[in-house]
Amino acid sequence: MKPQGVHPEDAESTSDASSRPDTADAEEVHVDAVESDEPLLPARVHRPSDLMRLLVGVLALVVLLAIAAFAHGTTSGLEQDINKGTGQAPDLLIRIAGLASSIAILLVPVAFAIERLIKRDGLRIADGVLAAVLAHGVTLATDLWVAKGAPGSIQEALTQPSPGDIHALTDPVHGYLAPVIAYMTAVGMSRRPRWRAVLWIVLMLDAFSMLVTGYTTPFSIILTVLIGWTVAYGTLYAVGSPNVRPTGRTLIAGLRTVGFHPVSAAREEASETAENGDRGRRYFVTLEDGPPLDVTVVDREQQAQGFFYRVWRNLTLRGFATRSSLQSLRQALEQEALLAYAAIAAGANAPKLIATSELGPDAVMLVYEHTGGRTLESLAEDEITDELLRNTWRQVQALQSRRIAHRRLAGDAILVDRSGAVILTDLRGGEIAASTLLLRMDVAQLVTTLGLLAGAERAVASAVSILGPDTVADCLPMLQPIALTRSTRATLRRLARERAQRERDAVLEASQQAKQARLEEATEDTRPVLEKPDKKTVKAEARAEKRAIDEAIEEAREEDLLTQIRHQVLLIRPQAPVEPARLERVKPRTLISFIAGAIGAYFLLTQLTHIEFGPLVANAEWGWVAAAVLFSACSYFAAAMALLGFVPERVGFLRTVAAQVAGSFVKIVAPAAVGGVALNTRFLQRQGVRPGLAVASVGASQLFGLGCHILMLLSFGYLTGTEKTPSLSPSRTVIAGLLTVAVLVLVVTSVPFLRKFVVTRVRSLFAGVVPRMLDVLQRPQKLITGIGGMLLLTACFVMCLDASIRAFGSEGTSLSIASVAVVFLAGNALGSAAPTPGGVGAVEATLTVGLIAVGLPKEVAAPAVLLFRLLTLWLPVLPGWLAFNQLSRKGAL
Hints:
The chain crosses the membrane at residues 54-72, 92-114, 197-215, 221-239, 591-610, 622-647, 692-714, 734-754, 783-808, 814-831, 838-856, 862-884. It is found in: Cell membrane. This is Lysylphosphatidylglycerol synthase domain-containing protein. The structure is a single chain. This protein is mainly α and 893 residues long. Helix content is 66%, strand content 5%. Helix 1 (8-19) runs antiparallel to helix 2 (26-32). It is flat and about 100 Å long.
């Protein structure tokens, strides 16, 4: 705990009290003289809740206009029913309601503004006036759009002939009603029930009178309300809302209302991250006549912090793994108080709650007895004893005995006082009557927290000694990063990066030592300088370097913490469940894949709607379709050659071909650049290739394939640019592409951050790939097989696409092989970069646009691409699934 800065309001009040003690009564002087140290507060804050309401309002406006545009019959019937029902209202009542509402709709906002100005809350009034002005501008723009450019159905839904002039139309949006709604929303009248009730009654009377007299339509009223509401929240988010956080002086006054006599209040330091920023601001308060207090203040700004992160977690994780992202201050106060009382009743050491109170309409405070102590993560390594670990588990056991879930057992939520007693804090996010899954998540979180501080062995041993082996074993399915707190996940990622860096450093050091040893041997060699070493010597040196690197990798390899914890638990309970529980409702990759696939499907559908497939299929050249099928089948043999060319060990060719066929199934459920690499690496490991060498072989194949891909793209691009010119001068497009690549290279090499990033990645890649390439270079036939397989693989795909084009094209619509190759290579590159499985959507769109760009008619390009993707992506899925299952049963995958 550490005081931070003095709030200017508190400093001013203190100086005022010291300068005029004779003119103020004793109680007021005493209040002003109290010290209250806290950092400066921003004058305005941008609330995520305002942004969410703005987005909801915009969406509601779009839906309303869509209904008005496409449901013309429904809107007309609704207007007729309303006019028929309101036509029976007494004329005198309508006139009185209209007159009263017209007067009151102006008087009520003015009266509220006067009341706020008297209470010195002019900032809110200014925000309201700004929102009203903007709403009036939006209404004018909307009226102009409806009159000049809107579809006829929308104009009919929002307007009708004016009762005073049948040749004129009523206003689509009420020019005075929308600004009033924007004003009342921006000034926060909704948080004052009496003013809110009065104004809504006035607005409803005004809308009713105008609807009955025929000066508006139901859709016009709804549109007016939505515009005012949306503009108000857009204004509040843009300019920020006045900061209503209670100051130190407000906190002191609130403590006095519940019977305490504070002397000083010091703000505790805390990191307000997206995860724990909503836990409230904490103060250390000293009293005149008693022990100090720990006070937590929660306001609307704390409630808003981390809002979007919690919304994302609620969308992607199952309900039992998350907590509510929307919670009122009253609910937060009641939940924290309930958890505090329940934890103490369960026998756990938790801060004792002694008072609660509201600090105005926008904040609450919770008063605890002062606990003191240090957080568990701040203790030195020698202070974390086995007894301390067991005491921590005893507190969790007390909570779990009453089915209370803490939900955040991180290192900063556990305090240790001077006597060594463990105190559990931050109970605000917990749950009573928790499910078994939540209790297991608590165990998984705490064993990970203690493992980070004391090691996996001690953490598991202490948990087993208190909870028993069965309870600890049952938590293994929850031992996954997604079930842990955000701070714990960040720590695990940092440790993983450090572990990977140590492995890379070990490999580089081993490689350098091997080179140094060869240099020393060369200097001591008595052979003539010009005499070259024989092949046996070169092979022996390469094997020695490879062996040194393998040993360095094995020595540097470390297991991550979660794996260590699992191994420790399995030593005690070998039959414990290890399959991770499914906590994610939807994965981010799945969501991105769905969006990208929807975009690609929309693009293809727009292209296909203008094509008549009946005559096209009837006139298709089935001989070229058969040729396309043959080229697609040959691509799997070429892919097997491209892989085996970089594997010096002996691996069966036909089984490798089967693995490539299985890859056609894998790339449907994973991005193309990820699924194929993982499957080939796993396949080589199962064929007896060591894990490090398998990764290096696949990496060498991918690296060499990337180089071949770029060279072929540039070569065919050059040929495409010279096809229509008498000389061999490249086209301007090729020159522009080369210049763009050169500029990118210069930018990367000139910016230190980018240069360091690229160099680090390249070093880590070459650390494992280069020694593997040395092994391949010792066998020229292997290198020829690999290079030939890559070229043959590209040729198969290019010929398959060319055959698909010829199947639907006529004599004059065929393209040159160079043009087809350029289109395929560009589409394949984009498909590898796209996050969708198999590049779905991205490849189809790129190939179609590319073929049209090089001169192929749209009526031929679209079906040709569909046939090509059908043969290379969709039809091989069933054989791929069968091959995948067959290889899995035989232990080859």
